Amino acid sequence: MNSVIDFDAFVSERARSVDTSGIRRVFELGAKLKNPINLSIGQPDFAVPDAIKQATIRAIESDRNGYTLTQGVPELLGAISRHLGSDVGWRVPSDDLNVIVTSGTSGALWLAFMAILNPGDECIVADPYFVLYPALGQVTGSSVVACDTYPDFRLTAARVEPLITNRTKLLLVNSPSNPSGVVLNSGELRELVDLCERRGILMISDEIYDEFTYDDARENGQCPSPARLTDQLLLVRGFGKTYGCTGWRMGYVAGPRLIIQQMQKLQQYTYVCAPSMAQVGLAGAFDVDMSAHVAAYKRKRDMVLEAFGGVTTVEHPGGAFYAFVEVPSRLKVSGSMFCERAIEQNVLVIPGKVFSRRDTHLRLSYAVSDKTLRAGLDILVRLMR
Ligand code: PMP
Fold first, then answer.
1. Which of 21, 42, 72, 145 has the most other CB atoms within 10 Å of its CB?
2. Does residue 319's CB lie within 6 angstroms of at least one atom of ligand 1?
3. What is the tens place of the pLDDT at every residue in 4-61?
4. What's the CA-to-centroid distance between 17 and ligand 1, angstroms?
5. What does the pLDDT read at residue 28?
6. Does 7-47+290-384 match 66-287 in CATH topology?
7. Which residues of the chain have pLDDT under 50?
């Protein structure tokens, strides 16, 4: 149909400012493949644990299908509160702290940016970064300032401090990291917390991958978290990756009551509430043992490190299910060009450029079967030799 309306003229500057071309290109190339070896997907390959499935089905059958309180259903809020008490030692809710359930971790991050940043304000993030972060800057008219963390991908206070200006409001920390899998240790987190306190900056800690932290990066059996050092930050966590239910859109955010209150107000007028049946179904999730899946992913992580050993550099991923793999400079190709070669060989991986100002790496997800991973690694390694 020939349109008489120039729809393109209707698109806001805000929408236009967000660039999805990097990921779209991988999808377009991938769509042409018959049975790609897909190492590009950022979600677990295991099924939702049966107890959680059944609890969610029961929630639907018992008519928990209407709006919930914007903050979340009491049974899930209670479970989160107990979990945060034992995991990071926060007392939530209290006079100073509060928590809300959000529509995914993305929902929490959107609300945080909307509640905190004015146009022109600045938020510092590590480069490489999760793709949502720069987009959040663009839609709020704020600047997301990339802190180059190559080659070890560690967001250190020494790297962050020179980027602080009088417009810096936020430091967004993501450990374990997407795309590098790097986990910061408590010493590094302590320095970041001190820096934020000293310079009057609010930290957001995006800990969506906290459960996927491997023994070699754990401290006292736990994923290192700045929330154990201070409660003057926004702690963002999710259920999607941990329990394999990314499509249920479930996350939560805890932190200073005053900020959470503003986020809750904005949630009322946007998402309204997180999905009701998923909230009820996940109330028992913290009691579900995911350690066998975590152990399986650690083994896959080791397969990746072993495959690339002696071929190229992979900074040790202590968590998440990604590796950020350097394309050897002797090949004299960019990360993007290498990924196109990989796609020609039927392997889908994402160019590092999608997550970075640099174009020297690729991100692979090892949240796939051993067989798929083995096949993909063999091809990638062959292309790098
Ligand atoms: N933060 C990071 C670092 C992520 O990798 C993702 C998902 N890929 C999200 C947030 C968003 O997760 P959710 O599906 O819970 O919105």
1. 72
2. no
3. 899 999 999 999 999 877 777 777 877 888 889 999 988 999 999 999 999 999 999 9
4. 21
5. 80
6. no
7. none
pLDDT of residue 200: 98
pTM: 0.97
The pLDDT score that the predictor gives to residue 27 is 76
- Cα 200 to middle of ligand 1, angstroms: 27
In the prediction, which pLDDT does 1 show?
A: 65
For ligand 1, mutation pick of 48, 175, 178, 183 (most atoms within 8 Å of CB): 178
- Enumerate the domain spans of the chain: 7-47+290-384, 66-287
Question: What is the atom index within ligand 1 of the atom nearest the CA of 109?
Answer: 10
Task: State the residue for tokens 């946007």.
Answer: 270
| C-beta pairs of 199-202 under 8 Å, 24+ apart in sequence | 199/161, 199/164, 199/168, 201/124, 201/164, 201/168, 201/169, 201/170, 201/171, 202/116, 202/169, 202/170, 202/171, 202/232, 202/233, 202/234, 202/259
| Domain 66-287, second-level architecture | 3-Layer(aba) Sandwich (3.40)
Q: What is the mean pLDDT of the chain?
A: 96
Partners of 101 in the β-ladder: 252
CA–CA distance, 366 with 297 (Å, rounded to integer): 8
CA of 297 to the centre of ligand 1 (A): 18
Query: Is residue 249 classed as helix, strand or coil in its secondary structure?
Result: coil
pLDDT of 26 reads 77
> How high is the pLDDT of residue 261?
98
Distance of CA 97 to the CA centre of its chain: 23
Whole-number Å distance, alpha carbon 248 to ligand 1 midpoint, is: 12
Question: What's the token pair of residue 279?
Answer: 């909230």
Give the pLDDT confidence of 233-256 residue by residue, as tens digits: 999 999 999 999 999 999 999 999
What is the CATH number assigned to the segment(s) 7-47+290-384?
A: 3.90.1150.10
276 ligand 1 Cβ < 6 A: no
Query: How many whole angstroms separate alpha carbon 362 and alpha carbon 339?
Result: 7
C-alpha 106 – ligand 1 centre gap (Å): 6
Q: What is the pLDDT of residue 3?
A: 78
Cβ neighbours for 178, distance < 8 A, ≥ 6 positions apart: 42, 130, 208, 209, 320, 322, 355
Closest residue by Cα to atom 5, ligand 1, is 178
